Amino acid sequence: MSVLRFPRSLTRRTFSRHFSSIDLHPSQPRAPSILTSVPGPKSLALSEEIGKFQDPRAHYFVADYEKSSGNYIVDADGNILLDVFAQVASIAVGYNSPPLLEYAKSDEFIKAALNRPGLGSFPPVQWSEWINQGLMTVAPNGLDQLCTTLCGTSANETAFKLAFMAYRQRERGGDFTTEELETCMSNHSPGSPDLSILSFKGGFHGRLFASLSTTRSKALHKVDIPAFDWPAAPFPQLLYPLEDHIKENQEEEEKCLLEVERILIDQKSTKPVAAMIIEPILSEGGDHHASPSFFRSLRSLAKKHSVYFIVDEVQTGVGATGTFWAHEKWELGKGQEPDFVTFSKKMQASGVYHKLETRASKPYRNYNTWMGDPMRTLQARQILQIISSHNLVSHTSTIGALLHSTLSEIFVHFPQLILNFRGKGEGTFLSWDMPDSSIRDKFLLLVRQRGVHMGGCGEKTVRLRPMLVFGEEEVIVLADVVEGVLKMMKE
After folding, report:
1. Which residues form a coiled coil (predicted)?
2. Distance (Å) of CA 217 to CA 270, 404, 435
3. N or C: which end of the chain has fewer CB within 10 A?
4. CA 427 to chain centre
């Protein structure tokens, strides 16, 4: 590793002193330390051992989580890396957070972990208290119902089911007909209606059957898997910097909105759209952005055509973009709130916020054995308390602005390597394109060998997904490594 320094005009007095990662993780490393290649020999050997029972081909390296701390992940070979990928945007307050470790020793947490109930039928006496102290404290505006689930994919699948049931109940008005009950058992209409979910090209909503039918990010995710014949609308392909392409981007968004409405109208005679699902930032497909105005217009179109509106905040939620929910930036008015908001990842628990009108009409319709996990619900409660007590959402907004300006100052010297730098005003949810996938992959490999672990998305995009505890010193480390690698690649 080179000696750390402040890039160009970045000085210590630039930093806000509201929060430092050391405040929560006093023992975390202050810089990366690379002893071997990444992955090193021990990682490779452990991957080979894992490969005897499980496919290891997606391994970056094998981690030693007992030694990892704060923003730093340690691998099996003792390499210490600044982690700005964070288990695909899933770690909120750092590895081995001291307050979480202390809470994990409590009787409450231990007993919740060991006595896992079937929540739909046998909830614990504390269930209402745990939910109201935790997950309901951050419920999106207008959504006072919560269904806990097992993961982000199941959260989206649950939202689909609730939307379909509510859509048909709204049409039917009463109880099921005999014909509906009989035909659903053979997967035929009217009991199994020919409805659809509208998604967007480049979106990612999971890898199970219904969610995979709405995932449009990479063919490798979908090939060979039977899918529902559901429509996909174009998502705006904006030009960057945004401030230099206002007219072109407005025209692009208007064109996409016209196509969305055309699909909604056309589908009414074939497979009516019961709901549309959208990410505030299309993450896995390459970090595609759109304006708040575009999303407000989408919401209005859904209302106009009586289509439920699902916002997938699995990756963007829980403070990642400098607001707790990314869709807060859309400034939806009263009565325009989403019908469903799904979450997972940084919350460490998963579920769907929704409205009473979309609760299933009868028991057991929205049901499975676990329906979430009290242990993860309690973990989420503690994470939310840490986020609140340390003002980490506000911190992410502030540190994100600093990180954006710092990288902008570096990137201006590498116009042939860095394209479409984006995410200004979106906290640390930053990304950029590189000329092609091979150059992007080479960049990711080189920064990893120098002690920074980051990830890609789409065909040629680099994305940053640091934790909410990413702070001042981490900006310096990241900027130093990125600048050094870009200089090497330029030469």
Report:
1. none
2. 25, 26, 19
3. C
4. 14
- What is the C-alpha to C-alpha distance for residues 271 and 261, in angstroms, rounded to an integer? 14
User: Where exactly are the structural domains of the chain?
Assistant: 12-83+390-413+421-480, 109-388
pTM as predicted: 0.95
Query: Are 465 and 88 within 8 A, CB to CB?
Result: yes
- List residues with catalytic annotation: 204, 312, 345, 369
Query: Residue 79 pLDDT > 60, yes or no?
Result: yes
Q: Indicate the DSSP class of residue 274.
A: E
Tokens of 320: 């990642």
Could you tell me which of 130, 144, 152, 23 has the C-alpha nearest to residue 382?
A: 130
Report the C-alpha gap between 393 and 386 in whole angstroms: 11
308-312 vs 273-278, strand pairing mode: parallel
Enclosing H/E stretch for 448: helix 437-449
Radius of gyration from C-alpha coordinates of the chain: 23
Residue 22: C-alpha distances to residues 14, 31, 72, 113, 441 (Å): 18, 12, 12, 29, 31
The CATH fold assigned to 109-388 is: Aspartate Aminotransferase; domain 2 (3.40.640)
Phi, psi (rounded to 5 degrees) for 283: -80, -60
Domain spanning 12-83+390-413+421-480, CATH architecture: Alpha-Beta Complex (3.90)
Q: Is the pLDDT of residue 198 over 50?
A: yes
Strands (DSSP E) found in 64-195? 72-74, 80-83, 145-149
Residue 435 has pLDDT above 60, yes or no: yes
Which pLDDT score, from 0 to 100, does residue 60 have?
96
- CB-facing half-sphere around the CA of 112: CA atoms within 13 A: 22
Q: Are 161 and 168 in contact (CB under 8 A)?
A: no
Report pLDDT for 27. 93
- For residues 430 and 407, is the Cβ–Cβ distance under 8 A? yes
